[in-house]
Description:
The protein is of the alpha/beta class. It has 14 helices and 17 strands. The protein has helices at 66-72, 89-93, 125-137, 151-163, 177-182, 195-198, 201-213, 218-227, 237-246, 255-258, 267-285, 306-317, 321-328, 330-336, and strands at residues 2-3, 15-20, 23-29, 48-51, 53-55, 75-80, 100-103, 107-109, 119-121, 143-145, 168-170, 187-189, 250-252, 289-290, 353-356, 370-375, 378-379. The strands form six sheets. Strands 1-4-15-16-17 form a five-stranded mixed beta sheet, with no helix packed on it. A hairpin with a 2-residue loop joins strand 2 and strand 3 (23-29). The protein is globular and about 70 Å long.
Amino acid sequence: ATLIDGNGGNPLANSLVIIENEKINYVGVVGSTEIPAEAEIVDADGLTLLPGLIDAHYHNDYNTEMPTLFLSKGVTSVRDPGAWMDYYQPARDTGKDLPRLFLTGPHLDTYPPAYPDNSYLIKDEMEGRLAVNLFADRGATAIKVYLGLSIGMIKEICDAAHERGIPVTGHLETANAKDAILAGMDGVEHVTSFGTVLIPMREAEKYKKLIANDKNARRKGRYEVWNSLDLESNTAVKPLIQLLKEQNTFVCPTLAVFEKQYDQGDSVEVNGFDNMVKFVGLAKKGGAKIVVGSHTWVPYAKLGFAYFREMELLKEAGLSNMEIIVSATMENARFFRVDQRLGSIEKGKLADLLLLSENPLENIVAMRSVKKVMLNGKFLNF
C-alpha cells in the first residue's frame, strides 16, 4: 500500500506493515525484511493505508447503530464530550464491534443548563472539583465544561482535572475564551466559542445577556456575531491565535454542524459561517492545533459521513490534505493524551488502521473511499 503514517511525513510507496498481537511490529517497504512464515498476507496493492481516524466531538445518546456505523467509515476512536456514560451501555450490549470510547461524563454546567439531560450542575468552585473527581473515578478520560460556568469555576475544574492527569475541553461562547485558556483549558470545542473575544466588549456583553435569558438565542445570534466581523482588520484575531499557539490549546472547530448555504440560510448566516471557516484557516496558519470532530449529525452530510464533511470544510479553510489527515490522527491522539499508543503507524502502537481505495493526498474527498478497517490488529466485517 501507499502508507500515510499520520505524522505528516512523506507517503511511503510499496509499504509493508507487520501486525503481531494487536500491535504494529514493523513498518518499512516490501522486501526490507522477511515476512514471518505463519503470517496472513493482505495484498493492498493500489490502496492507501492510514491510521484509524479519531473523532474529537462525537455524540450518540442511546443509539446502538451509530458507533458501528462510524467504525465502518474508519473512525476507530471517538470522544463524546458531554454525555452520561451509561448512554453507551445499549451499544455495548449489542456485542457489535465499537470504536474506542473516550468519555467525559455529562457537561459541567450551572442552572439553567442548555441541555438538561446531558448536564451535571455545579454552583461553585468546590462543587466543580468534586465533579471532576466523581467522573474521573468513573473512568472519564477528559472533562467538558459548558458555557454557563464562571472563569473561577473553570480554573478549579482544570486544576482538579490536571491533578488526575486528564484534559479539560469546553463549549464557551459566552465565557471569555482567552480567560478560560489562561485558566488552564486544554481544548476548545466549536469555532463559535471564540466569537465573544473577537467582537467589541459592549457587543459581547449584549450577546452574553441575550444568551443568559434564552440559551436558544445563540442559534441565530452566533451567526450575527460572526457576520459582524472583518477578520482582516480585526485587531483581536492575531493576539487570540498567538495565545492558542503559546498555550498549545487544541481547537475542535466542528464547522460541519454550523454550515450554512443559501438553501438553508440567509445572507447573515452564510456570511457568518464563511467567517468561521476563514478564522479556522487563520488559526492553523498562525500555529494553532486544529483537530477533527464530526458532531455526528450535520446538515450537509448523510448519516455516518459527518466526519468526512468536516475534513472537507477544513480543506476549504486552507489546510492542506496532509495537515487535515494529521489533525484527524496524530494531533487528535495528542489531544486525547494517547499519542504513545494511537494516532500513527509506528512500531509498538496499537494496530488501528484503514485502507482506502483512493489517495486522499490527491483529493480529500477520497477519505470516503474506505475499503477495510482494522481495530486491535483485526480486520472487521460490517
